Amino acid sequence: MMQRLWCLALVLALCGTGCAHLNSVSTTSVPADRGTPVEVNASRFVFLYLNFDNDYVNEMTKELAAKCPNGRVEGILTKMEKVTYFPLFAHSIKVYATGYCVAPAATPVTVNPTAPAPPAPDVEDDEEEGGLEGDTFIEEEP
Amino acid sequence: MTRWLTLVAALAALAGCAQAHQVQLGEVDSRAVVEGRRFEILVSETGVNVQQAAEIGGALVSSQAGNLSTLGDIIAMFQMGPATGNPVFREEYADAVLELIRAECPSGRITGLTSIRESASYPVVSGEVIKVVGYCVEEGR
After folding, report:
1. A32, A52, B1, B86 - which has most CB atoms within 10 Å?
2. B46 vs A38, B8, B91, B125, CA distance in Å?
3. Measured in whole angstroms, how far is the alpha carbon of residue B98 from the centre of its chain?
4. Could you read off the pLDDT of A29-53 as tens digits, one per residue?
C-alpha cells in the first residue's frame, strides 16, 4: 500500500513539474554597459499539439523597445523551450529574451546596401591612410 | 470519443500545425522600432516525411509494407545530425533571405530583426518556413 502511494506521488510530481526541452539559444554582441538589464517573454499553451501559428513571438521586439525607450537593447539572449505538462495533451512553448538597455549611438552607422562588399582591410595601409574609406558612410541624425 | 478524436485529427490535418524550432531576436533600436515600418519575409520549401509516407504506402499496399519500411529505414540512414523539420530537396531556399531583406528596406536602416524557423506540418508533406520580421527606417527620417 505504501509503495503504491509513493509511486502515485512520484507520478503526480512528474506530471506537475513537466519536462522541459531546450529548443534553441542565441545571443548577439554583449555591450560594455550592462547596468540596465531588460527581459521579456512570450508563451503559448498547446493542447493536443494543435498550434496554428507562432505569431506570439512577434510582439517581443516591441515589448523590448517599450522597456528601453529612446535607447538600444543589445546583448540579447534568446532562449526557446518547450514544456510537456502531460504527454500528448498539454504542452507549452516559451520564449525568453534578455538584454541590456544602452544609450543610443551618437551617429548611427548605415551600410549602403547597393555597394559591393569592402575589400579585406590591410592593417599597414589602414595605419597610414587613417582607416577604411568609401563603402561605409556615417549618416548624421536629422 | 472516437468521433471527437477523428474531428480533432481532421482539423489538425486541414489547418496544418505550426511547429516552432528556433527563435532569434536581433538588437533593437527602440526609436527605430517606433518610427519605422514593420516588414515580414517568408521563405519556404516543401519537406517530406519519408517515414510517414512509407507507413501510408504500407497501409495501402499491405504486401509491400516490409519493402517500403526498409526503404524508409535506408533513407533515414542518410539523414544525419540534429535537424529541424522534415528533409527538403533544396536547402538553398534560405539564401534568399538576405536579398529579400535588402529589397524590403533599401535604406539599410534595419532593426529588431526576429528570425523564426518553423514548420507547417501536413500529412506526409510540410512547409519548412523561415520567417523574418523586422523594422525599417525609411530614407529621410
Report:
1. B86
2. 38, 24, 10, 7
3. 17
4. 999 999 999 999 999 999 988 899 9
ipTM of the complex: 0.76
Q: What's the pLDDT score for residue B97?
A: 93
Domain ranges of chain A: 18-104, 107-142
* Domain limits, chain B: 16-48+86-141, 50-84
> What is the arithmetic mean of pLDDT over B106-128?
92
C-alpha span between B112 and A62 (Å, rounded): 8
More confident residue, B63 or A6: A6
- What is the C-alpha end-to-end distance of chain B, expressed in Å? 59
Q: How many Å apart are CA A18 and CA A44, to the nearest integer? A: 15
The pLDDT tens digits for A90-114 are 999 999 999 999 998 655 445 555 6
Taking only the tens place, the pLDDT of each residue in A129-140 is 443 333 434 444
Q: Are A23 and A81 in contact (CB under 8 A)?
A: yes
A vs B, Cβ pairs < 8 A, gives 109
Geometric angle at alpha carbon B50, from B76 and B75, rounded to 5°: 30
Using a CB–CB cut-off of 8 Å, the residues of B that contact A are 8, 11-12, 15-31, 33-34, 102, 105-109, 112, 114, 116, 118, 131, 133, 135, 140-141
Question: Sign of dihedral through CA atoms A101, A106, A112, A116?
Answer: negative
CA atoms of B75 and B51, how far apart (whole Å): 9
